[in-house]
Amino acid sequence: MKIFNRFGLHLNPYVSALSAALIFLFVFLGVMFTEAMKSYFAAIQDFISYNLGWFYILCVGFYVIFVVWLYFSPYGRIRLGPDDEKPKFSYMSWFAMLFSAGMGIGLVFYSVAEPMTHYMKPPVGVPRTIDAAQNAMVLTYFHWGLHAWAIYIVIGLALAYFTHRKDMPLSLRSIFYPLIGKRVEGTIGNLIDTFAVLGTLFGLATSLGFGVMQVNAELHYTGILDLSLQNQVILIACITAAATISVVSGLERGILYLSNINIVLGFLLLLFVFFTGPTLFLLKSWVQSMGDYAAQFVHLTYWTAAYKSETPQWHDWQKNWTLFYWSWWIAWSPFVGMFIARISRGRTIREFILGVSLVPSIITFFWLTVFGNTAIYFDLFGGGADQIADAVTDPQKLPTALYMLLDKLPLASITAILATIVITGYFVTSSDSGSLVVDMITAGGHHEPPIKQRIFWAVMEGVVAAVLLTGSFTHS
Fold first, then answer.
1. pLDDT tens readout for residues 180-232
2. Is the pLDDT of residue 74 over 80?
3. In terms of C-beta density within 10 A (0-12 exposed, 13-18 middle, 19 or more buried), how is residue 54 classed?
4. How many whole angstroms separate alpha carbon 70 and alpha carbon 81?
5. What's the CA dihedral at 34, 38, 39, 44 to 10 degrees?
6. Contact partners, residue 178, CB within 8 Å, separation at least 6
7. Can you give the three-state secondary structure of the chain, one letter per residue?
8. What are phi and psi of 405, to 5 degrees?
9. 445 FRET partner, CA 20 to 30 A, in 18, 75, 167, 196?
């Protein structure tokens, strides 16, 4: 692999140049031909979801089976690094960085919006009923649970194994060494890493778009800033600047500290809603929903709506939800997988699988239950949730759903500010960890790329997010 080492840079010139050129081309086309690009991407999305949706579902189901098999196999005892090496990060710091990088902004954005949407407009059954409420939580668990983390595990574990056990570069090309051998160091390897860069940037930019919409929604809610596209682009610029400062600080300082702060503040917000909301109902529904999720796990994993796919309602629902999520997680997998591999040196494969799948999933389920089921409770049992219902049925108001929920609880003005800080924190940690990963890919797998490269990719990530937001390419 050729590395350019001049002018304070350390990069693979082919991957860096090709990735930058393609991203600049996308930015140019997105700015100059916004409507045409929007229609073009919508047509591609429709084609893929209708003709290849079954393949996405089959692949994700295979990932889950493979991860379960690997956990119970003798390979689970293999350590990701020398046999006597100990993990660099504590469990608390490890989980904090896993959660911040793997879910972060999207989970906050959809914590109220998705359960309420499935409750208001279920794919099956009658809206706004007890059955709709139960199914809404199961579907939300399905999209945010073990399937998403199984995708991350497959990529992250392969990267961690070849990097920490085989001393290969921390780059996606290393995974393909058993298949194509030394050719990973040539043109094929460069193309693999280029696709990894593009997938990471666009996957992250989609998530950052959700985050900035929620930040703008809160600032509008408190009367500080109008809700507009222009203000959202300005917010992207401001938060990208903060992410740039964090990524320059490095993994052990900026990203680690921010991840730990995010977990603490997010946990405080979670506890507040839990104790001021319908606490007993939330505990019961959490346990019941996990049981329902387990009971329907296989059915949901391979459900393709085959006998209803000719009906536009069913096709649109699966395209807009399940296939959107599977595509999103797959696009994120080079970033999250590489980041997880970077912070997991010294752990065994079994420890890696358990820590990356079960712990984040259980925390995610509890988070979704507290926020989503509190909103459903207010509507289902007479507390009144018309504002929340109105927000989730209007794409323009969707980012305000969380704030509509907080408004029904005590100290709404304080918790709204706390929620915005949490969202901003996840925005920054997702952006800076993503920028670090992209920089490592373009630097040929180097663990500590030069600062000027980190700055470049952090800025590029913000630019792509702004273009996607401007073109309304993000999911709604």
1. 888 888 889 889 999 888 887 877 777 777 778 877 877 777 677 887 888 88
2. yes
3. middle
4. 18
5. 140
6. none
7. CCCECCCCCCECHHHHHHHHHHHHHHHHHHHHCHHHHHHHHHHHHHHHHHHHHHHHHHHHHHHHHHHHHHHHCHHHHCECCCCCCCCCCCHHHHHHHHHHHHCHHHHHHHHHHHHHHHHHCCCCCCCCCHHHHHHHHHHHHHHHCHHHHHHHHHHHHHHHHHHHCCCCCCCHHHHHHHHHHHHHHCHHHHHHHHHHHHHHHHHHHHHHHHHHHHHHHHHHHCCCCCCCHHHHHHHHHHHHHHHHHHHHHCHHHHHHHHHHHHHHHHHHHHHHHHHHCCHHHHHHHHHHHHHHHHHCHHHHHCCCCCCCCCCHHHHHHHHHCHHHHHHHHHHHHHHHHHHHHHHCCCCEHHHHHHHHHHHHHHHHHHHHHHHHHHHHHHHHCCCCCHHHHHHHCCCCCHHHHHHHHHCCCCCHHHHHHHHHHHHHHHHHHHHHHHHHHHHHHHCCCCCCCCHHHHHHHHHHHHHHHHHHHHCCCCCC
8. -70, -50
9. 75
Q: 156-181, pLDDT tens digit by residue?
A: 999 999 999 988 888 888 899 998 88
Instruction: Mention every residue, 6+ apart, whose C-beta is less than 8 A from residue 175.
Output: 155, 158, 159, 162
Residue 98 one-letter amino acid? L
In the chain, the largest separation of any two C-alpha atoms, in whole Å, equals 67
- Is the pTM above the cut of 0.85? yes
